[in-house]
Specification:
Elements (H helix, E strand, L loop, with lengths): L1 H24 L8 E14 L2 E14 L4 E14 L3 E12 L2 E6 L4 E6 L13 E8 L2 E8 L2 E6 L2 E9 L2 E12 L15 E4 L17 H18 L9 H11 L1 H27 L3 H7 L1 H11 L11 H27 L3 H8 L1
Parallel strand pairs: 6-12
Antiparallel strand pairs: 1-2, 1-11, 2-3, 3-4, 4-5, 5-6, 7-8, 8-9, 9-10, 10-11
Amino acid sequence: MFLNIKVAILFLLMLNSIVLYASVEQRRYDVRSGMIEYMISGGGVLTPETNLTVEGKGKLRFKEWGRIELFEEAVEETTSGAIKNIETTQVCKKISHDKKLDVDFKHKKIMERQIPQIKYSAVTNGLVRTHQEKIAGYNCDMWEGEGIRKCIYKGIPLLLEYGVLGVTYQKKAVSVIFDINTSLNQYTIPSYPVQKFALFKTNIKTKSKKLPKAFSKRLLEISQAFHKTLKENNITQSELPLQKRKIWLEKIGENIFEKQKVLLPEFLLSMKKARVCLQQAPDWIAANSCLDELVDLKNEMMKNKKSSIEVWKGKEKEKILDAFDTNILLLESKMKCIRSAKNITDLSRCIK
């Protein structure tokens, strides 16, 4: 009887330890609730003819020590020079205990995944704590590794920086508020249909088209692969041959290249169709109708504000038609080079 009581007490102590351990483990942050606003910046030289600029903002809200979390981000990637392209990325992710919800704004749906138990110390795996810095009024621990820096305050990232060959990404806290209002409406996401997946570690195939990765994720993956390659070959960044440097930079600009490779031939065809339509347009209303497809395509490439024809007669009409003829001939003369381009470097040379 006495032995049974001892066993029962021992079991209860073990159970309490497990519960306490699980409770501690589930804490993502060492702060009950908070809101952090970030400024996002970056970019660099992709080719001698093309530069990249990255600008954006992010916001992190959390409560229950990070068990419930909402992260929102809006970023604009702009290429200037030979290739003119603007890409906007909108991110909305919510973590609710053991579930992660990713909002797909393009297809208006939400991807729900169960997430395994996470060791939150993993955010600094492979990094070395070097010093402290003050960011947004808080002293955070700076963790550094090959091509990456993170400044962490009580588990909360206040700074994230990484880069490859002069192309950089930075997400830096500009406002930090703790003990915030934790009402449910602060953690709502769009009411799109939910598509459920299995754990992240499973290799699920779906019919959904794979979306282009955000610049931050692309650059981080390339940075990790780049520094791993340097380490395996026992060389420094400065010792990397010029041709190899070019290949890594082309990896960063791969999404831009693939998009432009598809859209430029479509743009030429659209200009030709608009030119034929304009020749027959009797007035400015019909002339503007001729431009609808072209304006939509131009907006997809460069996010231009919609322009319109206000005068469609005499010299103004001839001026617009002449401009179309000139631009069609110019792009047509470059099309053979564009079609044969294998990367963003080739494409930049074609268009310059």
